[in-house]
Amino acid sequence: MSTEAEQDSHLEIGHVLFLDIVGYSKLLITEQSELLRKLTAAVVETEQFRIADAEHKLVRLPTGDGMALVFRDNPEAPLKCALELSKRLKSYPELRVRMGIHSGPVNEVVDVNGRTNITGAGINIAQRVMNCGDAGHILLSKRVADDLEQYPQWREQLHELGPVEVKHGVKLDLVNFYNTEVGNEVLPEKVKQVAKAKRLAASRRRKRIFIGAALFMATVSCIGVWLFFHRSFSPIAALPISDKSIAVLPFENLSTGQENAFFAGGVQDEILTNLAKIADLKVISRTSVMKYKTGPERNLREIAKTLGVSYVVEGRVQRAGGRIRVSAQLIDARTDAHLWAEHYDRDFADIFAIQSEVAQQIADQLRSKLSPAERAAIAERPTADLVAYAYYTKAQQIDVYGDWEDGEQSAKQKVELLEKATQRDPNFALAYCALARTQIDLEEFELAKKAADAALRIRPDLGEAHLELARYYYYVGINTGDLDRVRDELAIARRTLPNDSGAVVIGARIDKRQNRWAESLANFEKASELDPRNGEVAYHRRRTLIEMRRYKELEQVLAKDAANGMIDGPWIQSELAALKLAEGDLVAAQALLAQVPLDFSPYGVIWNTRFTAALYLRDYDAANRVIAATPAKLADEAFDGQPPESWADGQVARARGDKQKALAVFAAARKTLDTTWQIKFKDQPYFALGLSARLDAGLGRKEAAIREALQAVDLMPIAKDSYWGPGLVTDLALVYAWTGERDRAIEQLEIVAKIPVGGGSSPTYGDLKFNPCWDSLQGDPRFEKIVASLAPKGAKQ
Q: Could you tell me which of 432, 480, 421 has the C-alpha nearest to residue 456?
């Protein structure tokens, strides 16, 4: 019996075109039947269908919402059929069809009705390829594309999308076929989700850097390490505290139920927001004051000292039915004197009037000068709809960054609440602003702009709306270097938001990119004053100092952040280790890294620091152990690729003199880069070019490497972006060094050695002195002069 079945079974390669109608299941039965009839008629009229059918080299499989066509002996037939069908479907705009093509094993069987049928992997994979597309897409598996690429008429119309995970964890390499007449050049939604997931994962890692500093308290071990390495440390002098500086602390909720707790937070938030609009005051941002929840342990004098303010506001909120009671008091934290207190017992509908009155009373007590516009802004109601306001306040209490493992879900929940608020009140401009900010957290940039534009249509002069538009233009502009629009929007926003640390931070980040490093540092320091407990602001400030090579100042800031509980043992030790590597103090760096537990891996930079220390010490076994121990999800960030075929693996092999292994690693990494380029570097092609140039240099492809490195510099020159630009020039210098162009390499290093270098790129004193990548330049007096120019004071030459 078994032998009979084996003889009846015939395995062959089928060339499959799978297609279906998008949105079919949502249609009425009559609509489904009519569309399927039109699709079938269009398919059977195609030339490829008629030829193959007449020669009995076609198997047709109905699939309910579409069909599969299996061509037996012509690999081009599915594509030709798809192209002809696409042109015919232009006469049927109601037919939204997607197609997938794959060649693979198929098995001819006889089904229960006695008819010839086809099964096998070729059918299954073709369907999965199709399922990755949207209406109008003609997607091909990489196997089919590789075959078609041999024919010149198809080559220019094949556009690689990279790998996508489909059903059962299978990964497919997809190619999109389109030209000016047929196909859909828009990135399929499923591929967008893959790209978004990669960006979000990177974003999560970055944000964990930012928020981690604010999540921990300083520890005894951290202080011990600090004292060991910095016995001669002299603290930064404390800045004088303004007489018109204030912090509005979280209000105590005396009501029952979680919903009322949101209202208590909303009252405090609105009072803080109103006060922050007064240019004559220094008002601490929400991020910093939210660290101090109500409770008996709240020491106002210590809080005020930490936040750098003279006054604090405390309050209570109690809601019962349609009534609300708000108590607020203004305290001089320097003397514990109560300067003003008031109780409001009113209808809940008066909540906005209460918040405005409290802000006005506090401003009067501090003798603040208010412009007519500021008085009007304080008195303005955000919305007339209390239900919309309830959605808004609930959304504002969601801390997207508090637990970033669930941050994406929290952000989506926040979006849902804010959308409900704007549906209830389409003129709720502040809700649109909050929605724009949250969409940016989700990296849904176009949705963010749509929300910001909606706010501006309602309130063209609203500072918050211009701020969110500036934020949008910043994130879409950092890849192109076009940031002028950001400054325009920020200028408008800061007229009415003088205390908004977010606006200051965006300005500081633009300063970096436009070669205003001193202004950038000053702005980060200003943002730190307005938001002294914000871990993201603190991180950016420290990064700016190391990028400017101001190491001693960075040590002082690290000490201050540690003392204030902004950064704990493993974080401070890893940052200090990176600093020591930049200074060329390898012994200190290793001692600090020894204090960092190996299971401490919140982000890829710590693994890169460990690897760099081993590389500088020429301990290549240790470098390989670091690579092997790095979690896979962080390896690409740390090493420019996945081990054992990453840039770091190639560096180690090359430094050891293992030429054969180095070539194999660089070749494999280069091949991987070719397949992932469009997904990983779609918006930043200059990074892909920089990496491909380094890999090609390692492979001895001199002309290609130099061409790619020069192209990367041309796409993002220092004059266009002084943050990323220097790193690309450093890549060019390395390519020259590895391809025997010593003079040109030194010429490029002379450029970047004189300016700050963003993004953690070299060169630093430690990098040029100890990194084996620069060994071919060692001994050249011009190179040694550059190294000496970067040496910190007291460093051994």
A: 432
Give tens-digit pLDDT for 530-552: 999 998 899 999 999 999 999 99
Per the listing, tokens 């949105």 go with 23
- Going along the chain from its start, the domains and CATH numbers come out as 2-186 (3.30.70.1230), 239-381 (3.40.50.10070)
* Tokens at 327, concatenated: 């108590």
Q: Where are the alpha helices (DSSP H) in 169-245?
A: 189-215, 220-229
Over range 759-783, report the average pLDDT: 92
**CA dihedral for 289, 292, 293, 295, sign (positive or negative):** negative
Chain length of the chain? 797
Which helix (DSSP H) or strand (DSSP E) does residue 256 occupy? none
Name the DSSP letter for residue 687: H
Q: How far is CA 458 from CA 427, 428, 454, 765, in A?
A: 6, 8, 7, 54
By C-alpha distance, which of 33, 36, 34 is closest to 20?
A: 36
Neighbours of 152 (CB within 10 A): 7
| Amino acid at site 557 | V
Show Cβ contacts of residue 407 under 8 Å, excluding neighbours closer than 6 positions. 204, 207, 400, 401, 441
Q: For residues 568, 570, 571 and 576, what is the CA-based torsion angle, rounded to 10 degrees?
A: 110
The CA distance from 733 to 746, in Å, is 7
Query: What distances in angstroms separate CA 146 from CA 75, 136, 266, 324, 677, one per listed residue?
Result: 11, 22, 59, 70, 17
Cα distance between residue 700 and residue 152, in whole Å: 29
Tell me, what's the pLDDT at 681? 83
CA-wise closest residue to 636 among 592, 681, 595:
681
Neighbouring residues of 277: CB distance < 8 A, sequence distance ≥ 6: 374, 377, 378, 463, 496, 497, 498, 499
pTM: 0.70
Type of residue at 91: S
Residue 288 pLDDT grade (very low, low, confident, very high; cuts 50, 70, 90): very high
Count CB-CB contacts under 10 A for residue 277.
25
Query: Which residues touch 675 (CB under 8 Å, ≥6 apart)?
Result: 160, 162, 163, 173
Tokens of 653: 């092999």
Mention every residue, 6+ apart, whose C-beta is less than 8 A from residue 468: 433, 436, 437, 440, 448, 451, 452, 455
What is the DSSP-derived secondary structure letter of residue 279?
Answer: T
End-to-end CA distance of the chain, in Å? Answer: 84
- Residue 378 tokens read as 């304080």
- Dihedral, CA of residue 491, residue 497, residue 499 and residue 504, to nearest 10: -30
Spatial contact of 638 and 611, defined as CB atoms under 8 Å apart: yes
Span 192-208, pLDDT tens digits: 776 666 555 444 444 44
DSSP state of 24: G
Which residue reads 């400017």 in tokens?
A: 548
| Residue 349 Cα distances to 255, 322, 346, 490, angstroms | 17, 8, 8, 34
**Sorting pLDDT into bands at 50, 70 and 90, what band is 259?**
low
